[in-house]
Write a structure and sequence with these properties.
By secondary structure, the chain is mostly beta strands. 10% of the residues lie in helices and 39% in strands. The longest helix has 26 residues. The protein starts with a helix and ends with a helix.
Length: 836
């Protein structure tokens, strides 16, 4: 039983070997007639190592050549000769010394082996006559050098004049090229793969009169289509001082447009390189254009296009070449509808209407064409309009949603005296918004000289910074970039409806308005973005934040993706609404940067008298969330970071109503009762003044010399004997002035209390102090409050009936209620009643 499978395997191998042997023994016989003037050559395939041979009788050959009149029988020594061999069949046709065999061209001889093969027809003709190659449907399509045809069947056409050969082009099947007319001889090649079932050449040859130019290529465009054509020898140079023509057969009810995509010019000594058009219904044919001009569009029907070379410079000839596209479309419904674009009152502005994805993406030539026309014959996929003129444009496009508008406007200031007080509105002009095209981007380029900075404001809408925790959901946004030749600072992405009222930047600024969807047309009516030029500012960028009550604001440092550049300082000025308290918190516990040179700092300071400034270095913990009762500054300054570290920080500010403690209210009531009792006591002391000369309120302190130098004998009594130093009553305002309050609620100045001056409080942000002065600055939010400032002068009098502890308690109560020791609790009328 074990011998059974082995026998089966042996028989299978024997049959396989026999089949291969029989296949190797398949013979081919090629018989060539003398009058056919055909040569057949079988060659080794280039780039393939020899692995097969040709056996003719008893001889082994690597290649085989069969001449006219020969009859050869051969076979290959391998089963797959198509991997190792190619075949050329060349037919020479002499139309100079004898008649030409015009008509259909056949693939001869028959019975050829299945190899990759090339049929070549070399037709020699006089330059006084012309030859025409006429192709049967589905006609031909020209391809660029190196491009392959989908079915690997291709045609190569070369013109032969005397000894010069010009490559007219390479073509695939299924196109629009129906005829090629040539001057003089032609070398026509048809390339077929080994497995192609094609049995006919697909063209015929006819004799024509001289065409007086290099060639004429005819294309028939019966329906909407787009074709690409190239000049002869492309991408090499068009022959010197030659002329050729493309003829386009287009139905009169269709519209054709021409676009030059790639061209170069030679160096001409005489004449000028140009293209000429014969257009239907034109009274100025031929119409001459430069290759750099916008080419005719919206052509109704058939037309001709000719390319004319020049006499080139012998030392530096250059190259003339051209690749262009012809698009045929049905007339659009609104092709006669014009749109007025009035840019006459604008200045330094450009408006570009383009296809979606421009300029980074080039549309495929097979994509439907959308054209913008500034006159009936000048249309293109991209049209740029400049300020100072009025345009009438129309569109050749089935779907206008595929078009976009990108506009750019420049505003500059050289001398601050001329532009400091001027406010510029950054609005999209109505000339753009009224077009039926979606605005993609509007760019303002704001340029300022040294020591002139730029301020952007949004008074009513205000701006919201786009951050992950608070994303923009509007139909448009602003991307703001501040830049110098050495540094670019991406300030961020902003949209309307936030809390940022003002942004000041120190360098040239680019603001890009980008739209999202069709809602911009409605929302654009409320735009209020403005800009002005201002004097030099200290920081690279400064924000003014004016939030609404109970708002929640998220802010982050510019250049978020790459971190702040070295030595850059950014400030935020946050306004705290009245009767509100702001809660400031940070997204992480440290700045998160390692410094190579210098230090990175975070500064926080409230804008109030005696406020502490909190300073944190990059190696210190950031403050914990804290309440801010007054307007405050946040400043971040960067060092030079070490590699792969960056300074980025996000913080949030939330607002809520101030809460009044019940204990504070009870303390206020108790304080009022104490004040009433004190007032009665003072009145009683005043009434008893006449009965007793002893001072009841003011007591002289003999330890302090308060006498001024004077002449002797001026007073008849000595100081100890007179009562000039005795105060019967001290004005209550001097004792309780820190507790008094004006009836209108305003803060009254402190009376008879000295406070050390802490320096002016302006609108400028805090800045990191020098290192030698940082010992006295508060670094942490958890440290205890410093003791209250004590009076530095020595009062020569003490007050009876009023202990210092009671005075401090009343003062603390007033501070809890009003937050200011100089605020009075009594009105003016009550004060008057106490000091009768």
């Amino acid at each position: 039983m074990a011998a059974g499978p082995a026998l089966v395997l042996f028989l299978s191998a024997l049959l396989s070997a026999s089949a291969q042997h029989l296949q190797r023994q398949v013979s081919f016989t090629i018989s060539l007639r003398t009058e056919d003037n055909i040569i057949v050559m079988i060659k080794q395939k280039p780039g393939v190592s020899p692995g097969c041979n040709i056996r003719v009788r008893n001889f082994i050959r690597p290649e085989l050549k069969i001449k006219p009149g020969e009859n050869v029988t051969f076979h290959f020594t391998c089963s797959t000769p198509e991997k190792y061999f190619i075949m050329e069949i060349q037919k020479n046709i002499d139309c100079v010394s004898g008649p030409c065999p015009f008509g259909d061209v056949h693939l001869y001889p028959p019975g050829l082996p299945r190899l990759n093969r090339t049929f070549i027809w070399d037709v020699k003709a006089s330059t006084k006559a012309g030859l025409e190659l006429k192709f049967s449907t589905p006609w031909l399509r020209q391809i660029e050098p190196g491009e392959m045809c989908p079915d690997f069947v291709s045609y190569s056409i070369n013109s032969s004049i005397d000894k010069a050969t010009v490559n007219i082009g390479t073509f695939c099947r299924n196109g629009s090229v129906s005829r090629v007319k040539l001057l003089g001889g032609v070398i026509m090649s048809l390339h077929l793969p080994w497995d192609s079932p094609l049995t006919t050449s697909g063209f015929n040859i006819a004799n024509r009169a001289s065409i007086k130019r290099l060639c004429i290529i005819e294309s028939i465009l019966n329906e909407e289509s787009s074709i690409t054509l190239m000049s002869p020898n492309y991408p090499l140079g068009f022959p010197e001082d030659e002329l050729m023509t493309w003829q386009f057969v287009v139905p009169s009810n269709m519209r054709a447009s021409v676009f030059f995509h790639n061209y170069s010019l030679s160096n001409c000594e005489r004449k000028e390189e140009r293209v000429e058009y014969y257009l239907p219904n034109s009274f100025s044919n031929p119409e001459v254009f430069k290759l750099s001009d916008s080419q005719p569009a919206n052509i109704p029907g058939s037309f001709n296009l000719s390319l004319q070379g020049c006499d080139q410079d012998a030392q530096n000839p250059g190259i003339l070449r051209l690749l262009f596209q012809v698009v045929v479309q049905h007339p659009q419904i609104d092709e006669n509808v014009t749109h007025l674009v009035d840019l006459s009152k604008e200045w330094n502005m450009s408006v570009t209407i383009h296809f979606e994805g421009w300029p980074s993406r080039l549309p495929l030539m097979s994509e439907p064409m959308c054209l913008i026309c500034k006159d009936p014959r000048t249309c293109d996929r991209v049209l740029t309009l400049v300020s100072g003129a009025v345009y009438k444009i129309s569109f050749l496009c089935k779907d206008l949603s595929r078009l976009r508008i990108t506009a750019e406007k420049g505003i500059s200031c050289v001398d601050l005296r001329w532009c400091q007080r001027k406010i510029y509105s950054l609005l999209v002009p109505n000339a753009i918004t009224q077009l039926p095209i979606q605005l993609h981007k509007f760019i303002w380029k704001l340029l300022a000289s040294d020591l002139i900075n730029i301020e952007i404001t949004s008074p009513s809408l205000k701006l919201q910074q786009h951050v992950p925790e608070q994303r923009c959901n509007t139909s448009y946004s602003y991307n703001i970039v501040s830049a110098t030749p050495k540094m670019e600072l991406n300030v961020g992405v902003f949209c309307p409806g936030g809390s940022i009222e003002k942004i000041q930047m120190r360098d040239n600024v680019t603001i890009s308005l980008k739209t999202f969807g069709k809602g911009f047309l409605n929302e654009s009516k409320d735009q209020d973005l403005k800009m002005s030029f201002v004097p030099h500012i200290k920081d690279e960028c400064s924000f003014t934040v004016s939030p609404d009550p109970k708002a929640k604001v998220y802010l982050q440092t510019p250049n978020w993706l790459y971190g702040l550049p070295p030595y850059v300082s950014i400030s935020w000025y946050v306004a705290v609404p009245s009767k509100q308290v702001a809660r400031l918190g940070f997204s992480k516990d440290r700045l998160g940067v390692a410094c190579e040179t210098g230090r990175a700092y975070l500064n926080i300071k409230e804008e109030t008298l005696g406020a502490e400034e909190i300073v944190c270095r990059e190696d210190e913990l950031l403050p914990k969330p804290r309440n801010m009762y007054h307007n405050f500054w946040v400043n971040i300054s960067n060092c030079k970071p070490v590699d792969r570290t960056q300074l980025t920080l996000q913080f949030q500010v939330t607002f809520s109503d101030k809460q009044i403690d019940l204990g504070v209210i009870l303390a206020v009531v108790a304080g009022g009762g104490v004040l009433t009792a004190i007032g009665l006591t003072v009145c009683c002391v005043k009434k008893k003044k006449k009965k007793s000369q002893n001072p009841m309120v003011g007591v002289y302190n003999t330890n302090v010399n308060t006498e001024m130098p004077r002449k002797q004998g001026l007073f008849t009594k000595g100081r100890k004997n007179n009562e000039s130093h005795v105060y019967a009553v001290i004005d209550d305002a001097m004792v309780y002035g820190h507790l008094l309050k004006e009836s209108n609620g305003s803060v009254a100045p402190e009376v008879d209390v000295y406070r050390p001056f802490d320096g002016p409080m302006g609108s400028l942000p805090p800045s990191p102090p020098p290192l030698s002065f940082r010992k006295g600055i508060k670094r942490s939010s958890n440290t205890e409050e410093p003791p209250p400032v004590m009076d530095t002068e020595h009062d020569a009098y003490t007050f009876a009936h009023q202990k210092s502890g009671q005075l401090e308690d009343n003062r603390d109560t007033a501070e809890k209620i009003n937050g200011d020791t100089g605020t009075s609790l009594l009105g003016n009328k009550e004060q008057d009643g106490l000091v009768e």
